[in-house]
Amino acid sequence: MKPNTRFALSLFMLAMLVPVLSQAGEHPNLIMTKAGVEKIRSALGTVPLFDATVEKVQAEVDEEIELGIDTPVPKDYSGGYTHERHKRNFFMAQKAAVLYQVLDDEKYAGYVRDMLFQYEAMYKDLPLHPKTRSYARGKLFWQCLNDANWLVYMSQAYDAIYDYLSPPERQRLEDNLFRPFADHISIDSPQFFNRVHNHSTWGNAAVGMIGLVMGDDALVERALYGIPFDEVDADGKDDDGGFIYSRDGKAGFLANLDEPFSPDGYYTEGPYYQRYAMYPFLIFAQGLHNARPDLKIFDHKNGVLLKAVDALLALSDADGEFFPLNDGQKGMSYYARELVTAVDIAYHVGGRDPRLLDIAQRQGQVLLDDAGISVALGVRDGEAVPYEKTSVNLSDGADGTQGGVAVLRHGDENLTLVFKYAAQGLSHGHYDKLSFSLYEKGDEVLQDYGLARFVNIEQKGGGNYLKENTSWAKQTIAHNTITQNETSHFQGKYEIGSQHHSVLHFYDDTDPDVQVVSATETNAYPGTTMRRTMAIIKRDAFERPFLLDVFRVDADEENQYDLPFYFLGQVLTVNFDYESPATLRALGEEYGYQHLYLEGVGTPGSEATRFSWMGNGKFYTLTSATRASDELMFTRIGANDPDFNLRRDAGFMIRRHGAGDTVFVSTVETHGSYSPVTELAVNSNSSIATLKVVYHDADYTAVSIGDVSGETSVFVVAYSDSSSEFEHVLDVEGVTYQWSGPYLYTN
Amino acid sequence: MKPNTRFALSLFMLAMLVPVLSQAGEHPNLIMTKAGVEKIRSALGTVPLFDATVEKVQAEVDEEIELGIDTPVPKDYSGGYTHERHKRNFFMAQKAAVLYQVLDDEKYAGYVRDMLFQYEAMYKDLPLHPKTRSYARGKLFWQCLNDANWLVYMSQAYDAIYDYLSPPERQRLEDNLFRPFADHISIDSPQFFNRVHNHSTWGNAAVGMIGLVMGDDALVERALYGIPFDEVDADGKDDDGGFIYSRDGKAGFLANLDEPFSPDGYYTEGPYYQRYAMYPFLIFAQGLHNARPDLKIFDHKNGVLLKAVDALLALSDADGEFFPLNDGQKGMSYYARELVTAVDIAYHVGGRDPRLLDIAQRQGQVLLDDAGISVALGVRDGEAVPYEKTSVNLSDGADGTQGGVAVLRHGDENLTLVFKYAAQGLSHGHYDKLSFSLYEKGDEVLQDYGLARFVNIEQKGGGNYLKENTSWAKQTIAHNTITQNETSHFQGKYEIGSQHHSVLHFYDDTDPDVQVVSATETNAYPGTTMRRTMAIIKRDAFERPFLLDVFRVDADEENQYDLPFYFLGQVLTVNFDYESPATLRALGEEYGYQHLYLEGVGTPGSEATRFSWMGNGKFYTLTSATRASDELMFTRIGANDPDFNLRRDAGFMIRRHGAGDTVFVSTVETHGSYSPVTELAVNSNSSIATLKVVYHDADYTAVSIGDVSGETSVFVVAYSDSSSEFEHVLDVEGVTYQWSGPYLYTN
Fold it and tell me: Cα angle at B156 between B135 and B207, to 5 degrees?
């Protein structure tokens, strides 16, 4: 396939016709402005959040200045000295330069100048980085990505000390350092620069930002629209098996803004990479907002950049930690520096949403620039209002038609369902159609494993992705969804998975006590249709809301289905018999099964299989409407993991043999509490007495849920006509139900 | 063996001659006094800590009064409704009665009276509790222990509303409820009442306290000295295999005070049970202090009760959680209600140590009585000073000669070593001679497994001890000490273990940067002498203090030694090759080995075997001077555990074959940090380059520790003459060292 280079070129040429309103003559003009600096200087000492950040940053930078500047010959992977030193350098240079503006103290400008000239002296003769693992090697770092990071920060530093430098000094830096640096990560590395991928966003921002500072319109255009595609081999693939270049010939910052973000601001790779990508998106956008107001960058695609900040905050748990959808490291949260940037800029340029001040307060720091002072003033003046997260349904895909991610929340995040029915998520995507994870406040109840990587920890594969990320973390069986015939969705193949996405059936959060989302997947297994409906329900007889999961499969042949639930904590009790093997063996050979030990296997003892566990000082119960022929399995992650790269976490799995059309119905309750200090066990038993499929045909699945007080409720999903006009009439066990809309719940 | 009943009897008769200074005529006179109540009432509203507790307790009691009183027919084990209801009743009655005194509101007295009469109505016809598992069945509860709990609290409730009741009401309660209740848990249950065991302490306190309130001197004497032994079968054994009765014929409260507490206040069962036992000890002592000042109970055995409070606080980590020595549930801490009692009473009667006010502040609550108001006034008046824990060496045994427990702390609990060289610890003891655990602040670095029990969680064996407590948790291999020939110390036999104890070699915490403890065990394996010396050392080249472990074994034949280290977290890197088995099998058949899977086995690649792991956002490295023929094993707990009663925690183990005399030398460092938010890995590598045994003979072991900066230090333990007068002269690798005292450290 040849990308549409004509389209890209025409965009490029069109852009060239727009007069470039460069203000290269006035500095700072990128992230800080002259007006902003005046505002900061006059407010200094009266804005606690800003003042505290100045104090902290100053202490940090002063300590670095004491140590002296070191720009070692590049040698190491991430985690190693030269990598970490160059990384720290650009952070410190940006901070020092900002302090120069804020405090008007030339000590900081001099430090930045000296560092830049050390780089200038070494860069012109610098070969490619000696480590060869990357598809796009940098010079200071082993991959262009990190070089781009360097330039994004150094552009800001350069802008902030621009006026401090003499014109000949600027000339030397631009000729010997910045321009060749920008060329290396773009012209010389198109496989890095011209993609629709978070790596490229960094490259685009880097080149564009230095272009804005230098007043180099050609670099800015390259950043915005990419390198013309006729200069590039357009059919290459990257190490992860993905196509390097967009199939429709788009590249550059605007393409990266259009493509991976849905109209709702969801970033297709997932929140962990959205967090990482937000920084270059927002920092370059802020620069464009100041230096190229003609582009109206924050209005682009109906203000998608600002929506993205909201979407990202919505994809965090009660502790602010992001849901680890696709490749995501657990623990990453809105306390990360990228989110300080995102929240401050979104507040500053995006209508001053006072809820963002609440997040900024929790972060306890602000940017030392125009955006940061806005936030700090807002906080100081008591304008913050609580950021209360609500249920949200975020579409995926550039035009919002490639499935999505729904987050159902009850009350104050007492129960939070994260349901994924999205597109593949580019090269960081997992094969986990219709998977979910469940949270209560900041605690995981049923986990998404996240990635298999120890980011920046040199001892574990140089801090990079481990092979278990592919062999385990991406595979379907690593997720709380159905694996058919022990084979991952799309056979775990990116070329297939990236062609498809799940489809929303319906989403309804209008009744806070019965919130429902339902989606369909028809491509993961040809010939099989999977339809999953998940609801968060609160009933009077229950202490807390519970999760209802109706997972229907229709297939044109008999299959084996595995549906695991990755719980965290210790097994308390089950209502079925099982055998515990004397030796632990891997459950299979491939698709992630090679990493699971079988710790127990049994068969249902009743219609409603019950399994309780405890963790986080709470009790949890999974109840599932099982068949007598089902196998119930306790699994443990860790087989074939000689380097101990995986966590030894547990799973409970329902295996159904020889089934074509079938339905898995389960509830998950959280209940009670236990404290090792009081040693009181409160409400340690499930409130569910019965769980049955009471009707199932092509058009409907009906489930009855009986509680221990003797009350029974019925939940019906309609698959045929979901419109509110259509009136459903259904007889279930002698009762006639009539309703309109895609589901019915009788309490 | 027949206990010395004559001695017990003579004590008993002697006690009968002491005039009983009963003040039964004035109430309250047990835990509260008339003077104390006056003080409380006049201070009310001006003492925040007290007022806050009143408010909290009042809200709790008011809610219970709303619900009405329920005294169901006894039926359940702990965790079940009738158990939990009766338990809640006595807590509520005690609180309501106290509120009556504090607030002078008859609503509370009436509630207590009504509840007591419901009990009076049911008790006279109540059979033994229907559950038969206990060696001493109660009536309201399945074991006398819980009945005794009831009476300890109800005595206080009765005392507080004594004057509110009419004389005929009191007569009815005493005749039909309290006296028969006291008789059931004493005369009718000598196997419960007459032991030297924490159960008996509860029984003694219960009988004594109701005796004090009723002015019944016979009950008080029974409580203090036990039932005369000629009324009892003295050779019985309990379910745990321990002798029921003390071998020297002692029983009663004073025997229980003399026997399990060392002169330093260490309770031989360990801190978890010390915490549990402290309540009846202190609450009855407080009652005796008020009603029987002639006994001078707080001066008994040089003030051991007050020393016990200090000892218990010393046995907690930086978060206040007790070290789980012997049977101990992790997470139990000085926030437990028993410690509120202990701290308040110790402050009130024990010289008003202002450091106790610091703990009380953290607890955030006080007793609603004379002791509580003292504490609350002290806190209000700003008298609290920080409770800074220091290193401490606590002797074990009634006379302090049965080994002990040493806790070495560096700085602000940055590194805390818990070294156990104690006696068996009665029936709750573990076979873990010379074992240790390591903490940094409140985090476990190398763990003591603790108990195998889910206290009060009905689903797990009724909340009682699980069989894995015996098969795993008590066994030697479950601890960070040496197991010889895959057999536990004393063959895991209580009858043998309880005859012996380890012996202190020396303890020296005078130099905060080199603190050392050393002890010897000669009985765990006949023919083998184990000598372990552990030091916490801080050197300039190291970021933090590290642990040095010199574990010497001298045996008269060749043995296999296993030395495990139970780390918590994820394996980072090792400097040796190992094989990972494709299937996991149990490592052995008995002595706990049946619960360990072997996850990897290798051999040393160098003299200094290195193993790094990470957890709690920190890095840890174990370095060990190994032999080429050693086996290095990764183990995982969980084999032969069909009910998932054990945690799937990991261990690293050094196995040495065919060794007679040998020495294991290891260091454990904690270093650096990692945050998933910043993704920065700081100082992730060990500072130790070399670790060697440079001298080893009958009298000395010398170790050299080389750090990455190239500096080497030498540590020598002298086993022969440890006196400060003796001058050691030793040539090690061409250098002559001269020193006096049991160890030398050259920095």
Answer: 40
Look at residue B159 in the predicted model and tell me its pLDDT.
98
- Written in H, E and C, the secondary structure of B335-367 is CCHHHHHHHHHHHHHCCCCHHHHHHHHHHCCCC
Map tokens 């007793």 to a residue. Answer: B367
| pLDDT-derived band at B260, boundaries 50, 70, 90 | confident
B106-111 contacts, C-beta under 8 A, 24 or more apart: B106/B164, B107/B65, B108/B61, B109/B160, B109/B161, B109/B164, B111/B61, B111/B65, B111/B69
Cis bond leading into B72, ω under 30°? Answer: no
How far, in whole angstroms, is CA A241 from its chain's centroid?
A: 21
Residue B242: per-residue pLDDT: 65
Beta-carbon pairs below 8 A across chains A and B = 121
Identity of the residue in A336, A648, A678 whose CB atom sits nearest the CB atom of B677: A336
Distance from CA of B78 to the nearest CA of A (A): 10
pLDDT tens track for B192-212:
999 988 899 999 999 999 999
Q: A582 vs B640: CB contact, 8 Å cut-off?
A: yes
Q: Is B428 a catalytic residue?
A: yes
Contact A600 B678 (CB under 8 A): no
Tell me the two tokens of residue A127: 């070969």
Contacts of A578 in chain B (CB under 8 A): 642
Taking CB atoms within 8 Å and a gap of at least 24, the contacts of A575-578 are A575/A605, A575/A606, A575/A608, A575/A609, A575/A610, A575/A611, A576/A602, A576/A603, A576/A604, A576/A605, A576/A606, A576/A609, A576/A632, A577/A602, A577/A603, A577/A605, A578/A602, A578/A603, A578/A632, A578/A634, A578/B642
**Mean pLDDT of chain B, nearest integer:** 94
Tokens matching residue A151: 């330039």
Q: What residue of B is the nearest CA neighbor of A685?
A: B459
The stretches in chain A having pLDDT less than 50 are: 1-24
Task: Check residue A389 and report its DSSP letter.
Answer: -
Task: Identify whether the C-beta of residue B247 lies closer than 8 Å to the C-beta of residue B1.
Answer: yes
Strand partners, B405: B394, B420
Q: What are the structure tokens assigned to A169, written together?
A: 């000094």
Taking alpha carbons only, the member of B632, B631, B638, B559 closest to residue B592 is B638
Task: For residue range B125-174, list pLDDT tens digits in order.
Answer: 999 999 998 989 999 999 999 999 999 999 999 999 999 999 999 999 99
Q: Which of B617, B618, B680, B616 is nearest to A337 (CA)?
A: B680
Task: Classify A510 as helix, strand or coil.
Answer: strand
Residue A527 burial (CB count, 10 A)? 12
- CB-based contact B675:A456 (threshold 8 Å): no
CATH topology of domain A392-746: Beta-galactosidase; Chain A, domain 5 (2.70.98)
Of A578, A583, A679, the CB nearest to B584: A583
Provide the pairing of β-strand B673-674 with B662-671: unpaired
CB contact under 8 A, A678 and B337: yes
B474 has pLDDT over 90: yes
Task: Please state, in angstroms and rounded to a whole number, the distance separating the CA atoms of residues B351 and B340.
Answer: 17
Q: Tell me which residue in A458, A597, A684 faces B458 most closely, judged by beta carbons.
A: A684
Q: What is the pLDDT of residues A650-659, one digit of tens each?
A: 999 999 998 8
pLDDT of the residue at B17: 42
Please state the ipTM of this predicted complex: 0.91
| 1.50.10.100, 3.50.4.10, 3.40.50.720, 3.30.950.10: CATH of A68-259 | 1.50.10.100
* 8 A C-beta contact, residue A628 and residue A587: no
pLDDT at A17: 42
Residues of B in contact with A679 (CB under 8 A): 329, 332, 455-456
- Cβ A497 vs Cβ A429: under 8 Å: yes
Spatial separation of the C-alpha atoms in residues A451 and A448, rounded to whole Å: 9
Domain-by-domain residue ranges, chain A?
A: 68-259, 392-746
* Contact between B560 and B484 (Cβ < 8 Å): yes
